[in-house]
Amino acid sequence: MSKRQRSNFFGTLTTFFMGIGAGMVLARWLLPVSKKTETESDEIPVLDPMPETKFFFQEDGETPALQKLARENEELKLEYKRLLARTKESEQNVQDEERAALFRALETILIQLPVLSERIKAGTDIPFDTVLSLVDMIPEKLETLEIRMINTPGQITYFDPVRHKPVPSQTGQVSAQTPVKVIAPGFQYKDIVLTPSEVRMQTDGK
Question: What is the pTM (predicted TM-score) of this model?
Answer without folding.
Answer: 0.49
